[in-house]
Design goal:
It is built from nine helices and eleven strands. It is α/β, with parallel strands linked by helices.
Length: 235
């Protein structure tokens, strides 16, 4: 597998490292270094980050927040994470820009497909924040949408596990890992890789997904070099 343009989905929860909340600078700098290396190897990188290390709309709704306001708070959390990553990238000499799904100038430029692709073609990392700009959609769905819009070759889902298993490997020691799996198999087995909307969107638009452990330093480049460090989801 050779990819020229990728959409990398990063987990907000992973950004907090061992802290339990907020942004762990060591984890942030590790991500930045890995992303810079990917760009230097000739790959165009667009990024979507979750906001779960700061606020999750769904859990906020369960505590009495209005769901729409809760999701909007979650969108703002993704903007905070995106600004942190862009700052970490620029600190090590990798140009990056933040695009926002909702108007937030001068914090970030309003997102458009063409602006994102222009950034990528000019060697910048395009960090796309604010989810889809709408409530009731997860950042997984936002990632799927942005991967399709920016004409990425693949959507990479960087998680804290090294791929897709028959069950949750953190809870079931007998869970077996898939090297590759189809969208239909994921839906049939009801595997919780991404939410159904995101999986269906990728399936309908033939967007392949690669799930891998981004928290293990060097895994992003190994994956881009063709090593089997995760699970490939195909049409």
């Amino acid at each position: 597998m050779k990819f020229n343009r990728i959409l990398l989905k990063l987990s907000g929860e992973s950004l907090m490292g061992e802290q339990g909340y907020g942004i762990d600078s060591q984890r942030l700098n590790s991500y930045a270094a890995q992303i810079k290396r990917a760009v230097e190897s000739g790959v165009q990188v667009a990024i979507v980050i979750g906001g779960g290390n700061i606020f999750r709309g769904l859990s906020g709704a369960s505590k009495g927040f209005d769901r729409v306001k809760g999701d909007q708070m979650g969108m703002l959390a993704t903007v905070i994470n995106s600004l942190a990553l862009s700052s970490a990238l620029e600190a090590i000499g990798q140009p990056a820009g933040v695009l926002t799904a909702i108007g937030m100038f001068p914090i970030g430029e309003p997102y458009s497909k063409w602006k994102a692709i222009d950034m990528l073609n000019n060697g910048k990392v395009a960090i796309i924040s604010g989810g889809t700009g709408n409530p009731y959609f997860t950042t997984d769905t936002g990632s799927a949408l942005r991967a399709i819009e920016t004409e990425a070759d693949v959507m990479l889902k960087g998680t804290r596990v090294d791929g897709i298993y028959t069950a949750d490997p953190e809870k079931d020691p007998t869970a077996e890992k898939f090297d590759s799996i189809s969208y239909d198999e994921i839906l049939k087995r009801n595997l919780k890789v991404m939410d159904l909307t995101a999986t269906a969107l990728c399936k309908e638009n033939s967007m392949p997904i690669y799930v891998f452990n981004m928290d293990k330093e060097g895994n992003l480049q190994k994956m881009l070099d063709g090593e089997n460090v995760g699970t490939y989801v195909h049409p």
